[in-house]
Structure formats: C-alpha cells, structure tokens
Amino acid sequence: MRRLLLESTFRMSLTFSWVGSTPPWVLVGLMPWVAFALALGGAPLRSEAQNLEVSRDPGVRTFPSGVESTGPRSAEIRTTSAWLAPRFQRKIEEAEKWIGERRFAQVDRLLEDLEGGRLDVYERVAIEQVRAISFVHRRRLTEAVESYRRALGYIELDLATRRHLSSNLGQVLVTSRRFVEAVSVLEPIALNAPLGGDPSTLLALAHAYAGTDREGEAVRVAEAAMESSGGVAREPLRLITAIHLQRADLERASETASELVRHFPDQAAWLQLAAIYGRQGKHSEALAALDTAYEEGMITEERPILLLARMMLGQNPARAAVILDQALVKGAISPEGEGGRLRAEAWKAAGRPELALGSSSGDEESGRHASGRP
Predict the structure, then answer these.
(1) Rounded to an integer, what distance in angstroms lies between the CA atom of residue 77 and that of residue 164?
(2) 179 to each of 24, 137, 146, 206, how far by Cα in Å?
(3) What does the alpha-carbon distance between residue 219 and residue 224 come to, in Å, rounded to a whole number?
(4) Domain end position, chosen among 225, 260, 295
(5) 133 and 67 both lie in a single domain
(6) Which residue segment(s) compose the domain that 287 sits in?
(7) Is the pTM of this model over 0.90?
(8) Are 223 and 276 within one domain?
(9) Are 40 and 159 contained in the same domain?
(10) How far apart are CA 51 and CA 278, in angstroms?
C-alpha cells in the first residue's frame, strides 16, 4: 500500500530569536520593545520625548516556545508523521508527547530503538522530523538542520512532503541567522503553490530577505504573509515597521505602528508608537500615546510609568502626580526610589505640596485636580 505523509495532530509552536544591539532583524515578530533613557529629575515634554529610543528590532523572541512561550505571537512549525503501522505511530506520538514534557533523553532512546527496526522511507523521515523538533526545543539548531537535510535526502519523497520539510528547515535556518541558505530553501516553496499561501513560510522568507539586505522584497513578502493570514496580522506588521525604521522612513513606520496599536494593542506596541512620534518631533502625540496606553491599563511597569509621568509633568503636573500615586498603591514604584521623588515634585508643581508628604493621595479632590475638573 502506498504510504502517504500526513500532518500530525502534534503541532509544536515555535518562536525564533536572536539578540543584538543593532539587529538587523529578529525572526517572526516576535515582540517589539523600546529602550528608555530616563533623565534624572523633571524635564520639559520635548526633551523627555526625545529620550524615547526607537528600536529597529521588532522584538526579542525565544525559541522554542515550549521553553519561553509568547502564546499567540508564536509561529507554528509543523511536524509530520507517516501513515504508519499502528505500533510505530504510537511510538512517534509518544516521542512527540515527551518533547512537550522536555523528556529529551527518553526521546533519544525511543528514536534509536525505532531506527533499529526495518523501516521504509517515510518511517525514516518521520523519525528525522521528530528528532529535528527535539533538537529545536533544546536549542541545538545545527543538529536540527542536519536532521531536516537527512530527511530531504530521500529522493523517493513526494513533492508535498518535500515542500513541507523544506518549510520547516528554512524557518530553522532563519532562526540560526543563516539567511542566505534560508533564502535558497524557502524561495522555491514560498513563492509557488501550494505552500505559497502558508503565512509562516512567507514570513520566514521575508525575514531571510531582510537579513540579506533585500528590504523591498522583505516588505512585499511580509505583506503577502499578512494577506495569506486573512487580514491584518501582528508579526508581518512588526517586521514591516522594523524595515521602515531601518530605512529611517518614520512616516511609514508610524503608519504601521498605528495599525499595530489599533489591531493588537499591548504595552510594547504603544511604547513603540510613542517612541516613533518622539523621533519625529511629535512630542504631544508621543505623550498622548503613552497616556492612552496607561488609561487602557497597558502601561504597568516602572520605567514606562516614570517616563509618562516625566512627560506629563510639564503639561499637567497634577495628573502626573495622580499617575504616580496610583502606581505607588499598586506597588509599581517605590516611595523611596525615583518614583517617590518624582511624585513629590509633581504635587509641588501642581500647587499641592501637602499631598507630597503622604504615601499617596487617592482622594477625590486630587483626582478632580488632575483631570481639570473644578
């Protein structure tokens, strides 16, 4: 009977990353971030907005997500298994389960035992695929690449299986920063049916293009990945924003960053939009973006809270003080630290020095003062 290679119910979610002071690129979106250079003491809005540093890096991703998952941001890399005899299939599924549990020693032993039997081509491919996934989850990417290449070395494979394995191989190559190799593997399958519509394959190729300074092609393929996803998609938008920043095209970067906060609002997206506005000299817009993010509960960490308060201090010191009061109550800032000192300064600037002495105001009068109500 002809054995067909089927997509397994086992679906590993992977993310890809590298970290560097100047990327150029981080794979699969992974999470945009902004570094803040906070000046000591209060400062006018303009100078504080300039302290927002725009990251050209769409984010730091960890790989695989089984170790440090970022949930829906993850890109999916698929494993395949043959239409195998029931006993062999159960063994493969057991190995896949153990990968999820990080029981790698058991996985190795099981795969070695399976290899000792009499196997056909697709059974050997299934073993190499599971072994590659295991290496990926151990961050042993070179060995994962070797496993995929061994699987692809069987000339008897049907075209669909070959495309499927090549897609996974290409994604691991991008993760390894082997961009030139990734392009050579991904181009033939990403730009032609049937995997031309696979968002993860297209996005991996877009990152590979970006990593080889083919920025125009990277944008085009990232847009195709977004279209293939059925609409606006987070990861392609992050990559496109990063490319615009790399090109110093702040106008387009602000457009795509605005789309990100409109469709996928989170702290990182709002901070990046504010940073881009600051770089453009749009300091009021930068403040408004941070304030909106705070009001929607998306700024919760000390450094961005302090930045917002500093920028707000020259415009509405009472509001800056109330923001810091709220952060103090929530434990986001310490009364003895920079936040406590800034809070006292804000209440004094608001003409309420008596409130600077307490641990937090939290009363209706201070709230009215901050909001501009009588």
Answers:
(1) 10
(2) 11, 20, 16, 10
(3) 9
(4) 260
(5) yes
(6) 268-371
(7) no
(8) no
(9) yes
(10) 8
Q: CB within 8 A of 273, min separation 6: which ones?
A: 254, 257, 258, 260, 261, 289
Residues 69 and 161 in one domain: yes
DSSP-H helix ranges across the chain: 45-50, 86-100, 104-115, 121-137, 141-152, 159-175, 179-190, 199-211, 215-228, 234-246, 250-263, 267-280, 283-295, 302-313, 317-330, 338-349, 364-371
Matching residue, tokens 């809070």: 343
238, 260, 282 — which closes off a domain?
A: 260
Alpha-carbon distance of 205 to 212, in angstroms, equals 11
**Domain check: are 20 and 121 in the same one?**
yes
Question: Residue 360 and residue 327: Cα distance in Å, rounded?
Answer: 9
Cα separation, 271 vs 290, whole angstroms:
7
Predicted confidence (pLDDT) per residue in 288-302, tens digit: 999 999 999 999 999
pLDDT tens-digit readout, 142-197: 999 999 999 999 998 888 889 899 999 999 999 999 999 999 999 998 877 554 57
DSSP states of 162-196 as a string?
HHHHHHHHHHHHHHTT-HHHHHHHHHHHHSSTTGG
d(CA 131, CA 319): 56
Cis-peptide, bond into residue 64, ω within 30° of zero = yes
Do 192 and 281 lie in one domain? The reply is no
Rounded to whole angstroms, how far apart are CA atoms 28 and 109?
32
Sequence-separated (6 or more) residues with CB below 8 Å from residue 44:
314
User: Cα–Cα distance between 80 and 128 in angstroms, integer?
Assistant: 10
